[in-house]
Amino acid sequence: MPSTPALKNVLVTGGAGYVGAVLIPKLLKAGYKVTVVDLFLYGENVFDGVKGNPNLRSVKGDIRDVKLLEKEIETIKETLKLIGELKTQFGIKRNADCDDPLMYAGVANSDVIANITPLVEKYFGKAYKPAGETAYLKNFFDGFVKNVGGARSDQTLFRKDISPVLTMYCAFWPWGSNPVNTSIRIGLLCETEEQEDEVVKLLKGCFK
User: Which CATH architecture has domain 9-63?
Assistant: First the structure.
């Protein structure tokens, strides 16, 4: 039995062609969760051999089409209800100097992080990188971890895949200079600048 790969999620664009038809079944057999984005110009039966595999997700469309993003906006908004719960339950507010339209940043007393964790898990599931787990290899080879700015062993990182081109994250970053405080960040990663521009419009004000 093959071991579970460290990188569990794979996006294959244009994956319904000749190469994809050979590659996708091999990725699934190796234990990966695979998302394929393709226009399927030559038919949708290319993956009949792995049809029904729970680790395969097919999206019919052009990866460059920003309109595909609109279908995922409600899921993002539902997840962002976490921000309101952080404020009402723990009194945590967005930092005044946080000007990224696709990121929320607040500060909590480190003592309450254990109480906040179940709330975050309600929206994101279990941590992608728990505190105490080494992040050395992830910082070099995991594109998701690199895109959120890297991670230290004392940091906790949650991940939620919204679509092949949108990934949400929540991170607990203890302050190195003052361990009494921990930064809480909630953000959204986009595949391209065009998609990011469109998402900023659709989610205006939602990260506050």
Answer: 3-Layer(aba) Sandwich (3.40)
154 to each of 130, 172, 202, how far by Cα in Å? 8, 9, 34
What does the pLDDT look like over 38-55, one tens digit per residue?
A: 888 878 788 888 888 888
Domain segments of the chain: what residues?
A: 9-63, 70-202
Q: What is the pTM of this model?
A: 0.73
| Residues 202, 71: Cα–Cα separation, whole Å | 11
User: Structure tokens of 103?
Assistant: 């990121």
User: Does residue 39 sit in helix, strand or coil?
Assistant: coil
Number of Cβ within 10 Å of residue 129's Cβ equals 22
Local structure of residue 4 (DSSP, 8 states): P
Q: Residue 24: CA atoms inside 13 Å, Cβ hemisphere, count?
A: 27
Rounded to whole angstroms, the Cα distance separating 130 from 160 reads 14
User: Which is it for strands 181-190 and 9-13: parallel, antiparallel or unpaired?
Assistant: unpaired
